[in-house]
Amino acid sequence: MITPGTNSFGDFHLPLGTWVAAIVDWITTYLSGFFDVVRYVFTWMDAWMEYFLSTPPFWVVALVLVALAFVAKGWKLALGAAIGLLFIVSVGQWTNAMDTLALVVVAAGLAVVISIPLGVWAARSDGASRVIRPVLDFMQTTPAFVYLIPALLLFRVGVVPGIVATIVFAMAPGVRLTELGIRGVPSEVVEAGAAFGSSPWRILRQIQLPLAKASIMAGVNQVIMLSLSMVVIAGMVGAGGLGEQIVASLNRIDVGLGAEAGLSVVVLAILLDRLTAAFGGDSGRASRLFGRRKRTTATATPNARTAQTAASAQTAASAQTAATTEPPAAPADREPQTTTA
After folding, report:
1. Cβ proximity of 175 and 115 under 8 Å
2. How much is the pLDDT for 64?
3. Alpha carbon 60 to chain centroid distance?
4. Taking CA 24 as the corner, what is the angle to CA 18 and CA 27, rounded to the nearest 5 degrees?
5. Running DSSP on this structure, what letter comes out for residue 231?
6. Contact predicate 73/283, CB 8 Å
7. What is the pTM of this model?
8. What is the pLDDT of residues 14-34, one digit of tens each?
9. SS3 of 309, please?
10. Among 6, 37, 183, 186, which one is most buried in terms of CB atoms within 10 A?
11. 237 in helix, strand or coil?
């Protein structure tokens, strides 16, 4: 009978933990300078984002977010954004909410910058896709606390381990949905672009990415939502913001503080979800506005080309008509022939 905590191999134990600890020790010893630079860059980015969101009066930031909501979806989303932001202010969580928003913007932005090129690479290369997919499976199924431990050892306590853990946890949907969107572009359209002499970069930029926009923006939306779901874990390692308030309420069994901080996270999540969905979909004021501008720009050049082509065709037709209506030239008079006797 095997008792709990033992295995059927007797005293044999695979020293996986020892190997991982040795690798982390080697990294912290010989690559500490590199991780110090990364820590400095991430801290600088988060500090500047917090400065832009927390330094102005709350009503300035709220007006900017409400204006974005109005441009994206109209007055209904703008009204909902105003009510939600006023709720955050009324429960005294505005500063913490802006700290959390800064962390989410930095982490989600970096995750998107990494995930979209990886998705494009996986879509254009079957070999890269076979390598990237198991890595994404590992990133999605591994508990966040597992890779939070080496992040703490490499970057120390603060906001940077939270950003790193959030990037690793949130970037997988961006890669998967980008690859799915580009692979879903009809092959006939891509072949037509290649037949007209377009380069692979131009096909990607003008054909594949625009047609895959809905799937890519769905990936961006999921990256942002997963980033917000990591705020509590980031708060446990000293990232601050609403996550720190939720952890404090858990330690003190403070239901009121937990409800205030938790509902503030919900408000931010709903607002960011609606904004990204509006800018990524085909409906809404933002899509119609940008679509109208693109159509106006796209039709300006073809109209000019059409006018030039029509003028050239009209000139050629006039020349052909003149050539057909002009009477033929009279033959030259022949010299008289003389006869000699």
Report:
1. yes
2. 92
3. 26
4. 145
5. H
6. no
7. 0.75
8. 888 888 888 888 888 888 888
9. helix
10. 183
11. coil
